[in-house]
Write a structure and sequence with these properties.
Creatine Amidinohydrolase, Chain A, domain 1, Creatine Amidinohydrolase, six-stranded mixed sheet, three-stranded antiparallel sheet, 13 helices, binds glycine, binds manganese (II) ion
Length: 436
């Protein structure tokens, strides 16, 4: 059996269980459609419903839908506009078509006629802001119990999903190397961003999220996506957090570079070592929350070793000082979405883990299990807004903080596939393959 055949069988089984548990006879997963800008007729970039691309690797066919009734073949209504405004219909043969009943439509009316009475018994999953979808009589719209059940089980990736994530990482790593070279060449942020896209022949809307391309101080802005068009007089440091997609699966990679040796370059190396040390702690049964805390203690160690904050690491962490330098979560599930869902779910009945108020941005609280894929992305930044709360704090070495500020910050981010005995680092393996 091919890995895709095994994947769609798993998806089908997961929907069977979810529908049985939530008492729906069938489901209609709508791919979605682009929103049009206010008072305009131009659509915003289209992003397919992740639960649609879970079934089939089709990401560019808005207004399509999948109807699934347990015990029967899924029916894919593939929407292909047939008019002179659009490119001609073409449905290249693909393996997924062997596993579904394919119905090509050019009008959603054809879907409703085809389904007839069945529509009213189906739970609808998708966006429904536009007609005729908004007026369809369905059993329920996005019922939370059904979504929770599906989202909980999505955490365990199939072999086919992992294969796609591997390729997505290879694509992103290829682009990262081009971006790094553009940084060495002294290019502007926008030029680096363009080099990234050109290296993988991608348009911006294909990326899983807005790339963060920050030179110097911009490395400290966690979601920086302004892209200066002029190169700075001196490019001292470069933080790039950028991904790629493959068959709808996402990569999410961060690397940080220092142009010259010295304090910041040493900090980047030390963070890289601390991140790799943390990777050795990932094992089934360990809680991701505990990894996050372990990483905070390592960041506390770096703050101490680099004489940024004085004291021993346990005290630095206990006093809450690490939060000022490493304010975001250690990572998140990744897959069909860059921040894949289900990180707070205790079970498939929708019960949630309680959140720790000290770590409000941590998106993953589940115990680690084989086949999960998540990122590990520790950082250390000079963020003045967070440091303000500590002004006058004797333990902080403000001179050292001033020395580091022009470099922004460091983050290293890899994606890990959990195995029973050992893990796979999708990101480092991708870079190693390219650097062979
Ligand atoms: N690039 C978004 C993140 O790292 O979570
Ligand atoms: Mn991430
Ligand atoms: Mn990232």
């Amino acid at each position: 059996m091919s890995s895709y055949a095994a994947h769609i069988a798993t998806v089908q089984a997961r929907f069977d269980q979810a529908l049985a548990a939530t008492h729906y006879e069938a489901v209609l997963v709508y791919a979605g459609q682009p929103r049009v800008a206010f008072l305009d007729d131009n659509p915003a970039p289209y992003k397919v419903n992740p639960l649609f691309k879970y079934w089939i690797p089709v990401t560019d066919s808005p207004k399509s839908a999948i109807y699934y009734e347990p015990g029967r073949k899924p029916v894919v209504f593939l929407f292909q506009a047939r008019d002179f405004w659009h490119a001609p219909v073409s449905v290249p043969a693909a393996e997924w078509q062997e596993h579904v009943e394919l119905v090509v439509i050019d009008d959603l009316q054809k879907l409703t006629s085809y389904l007839g009475d069945k529509l009213a018994k189906a739970a609808f999953i998708g966006e429904d802001f536009a007609e005729p979808v908004a007026s369809w009589q369905v059993a329920a719209r996005n019922p939370q119990a059904l979504l929770d059940h599906l989202h909980y089980h999505r955490a365990a990736k199939t072999t086919w999903e992992i294969e796609n994530l591997r390729v997505a990482n290879l694509r992103a790593a290829t682009a990262h190397l081009a971006a790094r070279d553009a940084f060495w060449a002294g290019k502007s942020e926008l030029e680096i961003h363009a080099a990234y896209l050109a290296a993988i022949n991608a348009r911006e809307t294909e990326l899983p999220y807005n790339s963060i391309v920050g030179l110097n101080e911009h490395g400290a802005i966690l979601h920086y996506d302004v892209y200066e068009t002029e190169a700075p007089a001196a490019s001292r440091s470069f933080l790039i957090d950028a991904g790629a997609t493959y068959r709808g699966y996402c990569a999410d990679i961060t690397r940080t570079y220092a142009r010259e040796s010295g304090l910041f370059a040493d900090l980047v190396s030390a963070m890289d070592a601390a991140q790799q040390q943390l990777l050795t702690e990932i094992k089934p049964g360990v809680n991701y929350y505990d990894l996050h805390i372990s990483q905070h203690l390592k960041v506390a160690g770096l703050l101490s070793d680099f004489d940024i904050v004085r004291g021993n690491p346990e005290d630095i962490y206990a006093q809450g000082f690490t939060i000022a330098f490493f304010p975001h979560g250690l990572g998140h599930f990744i897959g069909l979405q860059v921040h894949d869902v289900g990180g707070f779910l205790q079970n498939d009945r929708g019960e949630l883990y309680p959140r720790d108020e000290r770590h409000p941005f941590l998106r993953l609280l589940r115990p680690i299990e084989p086949q999960q894929v998540f990122t590990i992305e520790p950082g250390l930044y000079i963020i003045d807004q967070l440091l303000e709360a500590h002004v006058g704090e004797q333990a902080f070495n403000w001179q050292r903080i001033d020395e580091l500020r022009p470099f922004g910050g460091v983050r290293i981010e890899d994606s890990i596939v959990v195995g029973t005995d050992s893990n796979e680092n999708l990101t480092r393996d991708a870079f190693a393959k390219l650097e062979d």
